[in-house]
From TrEMBL:
Protein name: DNA translocase FtsK
Species assigned in the record: Candidatus Cardinium hertigii
Superkingdom of the organism of origin: Bacteria
Residue ranges occupied by any FtsK domain in the UniProt entry: 467-604
Region (Disordered): 213-242
Native organism taxonomy: Bacteria, Pseudomonadati, Bacteroidota, Cytophagia, Cytophagales
Amino acid sequence: MAKNNYKVQPETPKKKLSFKLFTLDQRIKIAIGFLLQGTAIFLALAFFSHLIHGDHDQHIIESFQTLGVKQSGAALCNWLGFIGAFVSYYCVHLWLGITAFIFLPCLFFIGIKMVTQKICPDLSLLKLIIASIFLVLWFNILLGYLHTLYPTAQILANQLGGVSYELGPLFKGLLGYGTFILLFISFVIFTVVSFNVTSFPIIYFFIRKLSPSPHKEDDTSLSKDNESKHNETYDSEYGLNNEEVSSKKKTNNLAITQTNTTQSSLISGAEDPDLENYPQHNRNIDFEVVSCTPKTLSKNLLKEQAIHTSAPIRLGNIQVENYDPTLDLSNYTYPSLDLLERYEQENISVTQEELAINKNNIVQTLHNFKINIAKIKATIGPTVTLYEIIPEAGVKVSKIKNLEDDIALNLAALGIRIIAPIPGKGTIGIEVPNKNRELVPLQEMLASEKFLKGKMDLPVVLGKSISNELFIADLARMPHLLIAGATGQGKSVGLNVLLTSLIYKKHPSQLKLVLVDPKKVELSLYNRLENHFLAKLPISEEAIITETKNVVHTLHSLCIEMDHRYELLKEAGTRNIKEYNEKFVKRILNPQAGHRFLPYIVLV
């Protein structure tokens, strides 16, 4: 017999009513929302009617138990009858007074939020409730304390509730007139927390009023004062200078700070030919420019590195000097700086017109996206100019970060970089490439005192910072370095600068290089260092690895060397090569036990 192929469908479990499903039901939320809105409107009418007929209804509510509900309702004047008069009597007369109205907008808004989530989705209901409770307590304390100062004032007496009558004498006995200070401080804290206030323009306005005006001369006299180091400038870090804005509505306000390494000048609106094309809001923004001039670098040639020697160790009657690893190649001389091409310093600077145009384009672009700026500060570097902007309160940093492509398009720049925010400054930085870039010569950087006298283990010159200061990094502190970028962005130049910095600073006994060049042309110039800095396998014919199949053997050999060095560090009781070599130089470690001086190995 054939089997009947059919499946028995399991019975679907019946949904059980639960409190969780009850609260998640959208219909229930909508019903409760409309109920709360109606309650808020009902209470508003009842409270407002109580302000008019409260005196008439008070004695009736107090004796409603003896008169009865019907008789009391007929005699009441409240617009909403007995219930309205009863609720108003307790909420307004006995408890909160006129401050009971503060809860009504909160109750109505909660009802709207439960009906639809599209109205103010970012506003938290919990914060709204806490704010309402704070305002109710704050006004009750204020009105109650004012009533204790002016007990005969009928206006205050008619608006107070039982809470105000209790809190007023309490704070008068505890703080006295200090109650006003407490109320002021608490209100300021409430405003800062609730509205995310980060600046107070009123305070800055009074500071500017009390401070002397820093610039009263015209552009001609100011340019002469810039030559003096005693020129005082006023830098308003936050907010706008109202006096300068009102007096220069048709000019660009460009203030330039003067320091030992900066020059300052004011850019007036006449220097910006396209000023009339920009809206009025672009002209009311403080714009400060810091033009950093490069410091004079030392011209001394690189000398041989002095080996630090400590006090000699005495073994009985034998005096033992510290070990000098450079004696293995005593005839080695450091490369001369004459091998590098020397470039004369060119007076390439960013024009005032370029600064003004970039500033206006940045402000206009941000204004198109409804982002207002309080202040802009421009710091001129050798290749880029950093525009530090201070947005007005309430502007999200991520919103400016997303406009990187739009700003680059309006500036017609090859590419910009937005630093949002700048660490330690509280500003947002926009790096814009200069049209005329200043050349940073490697010879000057290698001849600087910072490079010659630095204490780094593997110093690497990376260029100049935005303030025209030499930037040097220690390769020993970043053992895994990745250089990435698009074609033509300077990867090969950066790699050659890295190797050149190490060769000019370290002795061959202190550094060994393992170079891998799959292209066979990038690192071929370093073949001449085979007998000095380059390390290779005994079976390898070329010092620079060009065949990919030999890379595996080289990496395996480096892993073996690394494991062997870890064993030496373990036996010496040290944690790194620097501590190990210090012990070996002082002859604390015995070479007959397998210890040796360990040079740094850099794999490229």
